[in-house]
Amino acid sequence: MELWFEESTPEGWGLKVRLERTLESVQSQFQRIDLYQTSGMGKLLVIDGKVQLCELDEFTYHEMLAHVPLLCHPAPRRVMVVGGGDGGTVREVLAHPSVERAVLVEIDPEVVRVCREHLPTVSGRLSDPRVEIVAADAAEYMRTARDFDAIVVDSSDPVGPSEVLFSGEFYSDLRQALTPQGVMAMQSGSPFFYLDQIVGAVRGLKEQFRHVRPLIVPVPTYPSGTWSLVAASLGEDLGLGVEELVRRYRERGLRTRWYSPQMHLASLALPPFLEQAL
Amino acid sequence: MELWFEESTPEGWGLKVRLERTLESVQSQFQRIDLYQTSGMGKLLVIDGKVQLCELDEFTYHEMLAHVPLLCHPAPRRVMVVGGGDGGTVREVLAHPSVERAVLVEIDPEVVRVCREHLPTVSGRLSDPRVEIVAADAAEYMRTARDFDAIVVDSSDPVGPSEVLFSGEFYSDLRQALTPQGVMAMQSGSPFFYLDQIVGAVRGLKEQFRHVRPLIVPVPTYPSGTWSLVAASLGEDLGLGVEELVRRYRERGLRTRWYSPQMHLASLALPPFLEQAL
Known about the structure:
CATH superfamily of the largest domain in chain A: Vaccinia Virus protein VP39
CATH class of the largest domain in chain A: Alpha Beta
Oligomer: homodimer
Radius of gyration of chain A: 18 Å
Strand content of chain A: 25-35%
Number of strands of chain A: 12
Number of domains of chain A: 2
Number of helices of chain A: 10
Shape of chain A: globular
CATH architecture of the largest domain in chain A: 3-Layer(aba) Sandwich
Order of helices and strands of chain A: EEEEEHEHEHHEHEHEHEEHHH
Largest sheet of chain A: 7 strands, mixed
Helix content of chain A: 25-40%
């Protein structure tokens, strides 16, 4: 008998992943957390029935979410990661040598524990001495946070507890928490299924930021297989020249599988149907 | 009770699409053809259990497959489409006003019949007087074909009848069938699952063509949700300057939802893991 994980959208698109076995299944104070060993795609983290990451493809999402904003800052020192208790975004953030402090604000310590135990390829850098893990509600934490050079919002979708992370009030608090050259990025759903979500995020961020750019990244295990992020900056343009991006990429000694300065700029190109919606 | 179409890969990634009903299910001389009405994604064409197209997302694939090569030819007049009996690629080819003749070489007339009957949004332009439909084996047809300005290979995957369309001999015949400024494009599988297929196509085409470029396009209903194409040209560079592409795009009066001159160039950017494999 074969065991498959299944997730589907209201539009009737569904994902299946063949499993070998369940590594952990726990109900935390906040949500249901399942960690599976798949049969051909590495390990799979699922929260409340929705794929959070799969070892096969997590690099596309984490690399773009962290490196697009961080490379548009000349020398990010203090970085906040909202959500992302799996540690994948923190791993990419720490690859920038200028980073002195990475504060992970994750409401659910159980996510961190499960990923530390079972997902070392993703969570391994959480033990870096530069990392501080804060178990707090990110919306509350953001109200009084200050002096961050970059904030990366690696949240779940805007339903339930994460809904507030897609509000105008949160965007305003986030901007207040940034330094004058500050940058940010957030996930904003599938361009094929959740166009409204991208449009909403871009509009909300434009009220706070000088530069706001949506970008597209493939994630085979997210609904529709293609995801969008929105990046915003108070200082530098997000479509920085390719020469400067290449210089910074090399100077920082980054090693990536999906991100490159060319992919950074390519991901900012938008298909006409999305441009029109914006 | 809900009815779902399901397709999965050997790696254990699977796609599900919720169905309303079966519109047609027929065994032709060559293959099994199923046409479904989905509940939220339009109609779905399946051949031998594999998704060929879905109305939700067919535009990304058909637009890139046709417009990337055709816009790298100054004035394509005679165009061949290999496979693609659904008519989606022909629809995009005919949008170029210089096209005088579009020859569709589809081995299975049943695919054409089913799509004409049930998929007018895709097959509608097959009745254009410039279209000639040839029911033939494309590998055989290619051996004596001559004087095509562009050839678009819209084949199924390289297993069974389509395997020969991914061979060195076919690439050589294809080049012989092209005019001196000739261009071509073909599909080459998922970069996440079938890296060998892209590498093989690029190597094979490089023996015949001056310019060979793989490109990436999201297709939510294909395995992994992201697909690759390879384009090749005997004349112009496939990464033509953006100004020239914009000029041609406007001059030809194209209207597209995924393709744009900027998306054309963006799709040529390759992630490091794919660059290294090449």
